[in-house]
Amino acid sequence: MRGHAVLVGKWLVHNWPYLALVVCVFLPMLWMAASLAFRAGLFWPIEGVGKPGSDQVEMFKVFIGGGLATAVTLVGALLTREHNARERRRLQLETVVKSLEFLPAESPQRVPAVLATMVLLGQQRIAIRILGPAWNKGVVDPQTATWLINQVLISDRTDRSQMDADRPDETAMNEASVLLWKHAADLMQPKRLDYSFPGDFQIGWAFPRYRLDGLRRAKKRHLVKENILMALGTMLTSRDRDWWCHGGVPPVWPTNVLLECTERDTDPSARSFSALLFGAVHDCFPQQVTDYFTQDRVQRALDTRATAEKDYEVPDDYLDLADEIRRKWKAAVPNRPGRLHS
Q: Which range (234-238, 268-272, 293-297) has the least confidence?
């Protein structure tokens, strides 16, 4: 319910002029037209009600004519408002593009700046496909790469005045999540707890209901979430327990993100996979995790994991990743006889 309430709230904030137009102009006009039709006996005669006089008819005509003129004026003003907002954004981005010309061709900041501008201009697919080779060659650093990926993943589509860059591109989102998973180990630095990741996902699970549930292809929605979870699991296995933990205390991030996904996501597969990863961290620090996140929340997540394992809802690749976390962090690895590797 919370996700739907947020979606409705965002829609009202951005589209309240249209709602006001409907309530204040179109509905009164519809009521007046219906009243005139009933009074005139257009549908069936009404006993005891005389037909409207010529004065009343003229009054109705004046009201309806004035309402239509007002509606046309308001619609024109709203369209102009949206056009001006887009034009203002376009001019800002043009200024940024022109400023890039002052960067020397050999400048290390040139490629990251160009990619960021492409994302803001709505060319997300091109930017992501250029980002892959550039990242492989070391032209783009992990901080810039994760910022670009974050911009693609959190695209919002509720604002009618937004440019293409602010609306989700399903293909670009999928490619960005794959790229994040592929380079998950590169996000880790030698210094402990020094890593890069898309900023919104450092706060919590950034896919509540209103983010991806409206995309046309549920399969792509499913893959984007699972690729991000695979990236989180790969990061956990790319460093040992001492790198992630200090004084026997488990890492709050990404443990909190995995727990939020298990609790809030609408995709059963994503919930099951995140529960597996969360359960692996819990098995390494059972008491500390329970104390930090409360026993009720932890138990619900463990119940989700148990259901997923029992009902064979997740591929063995995901189970293997959870087991690898336990091996790296020196926890007992469960025996699962009878499971087939996918």
A: 268-272
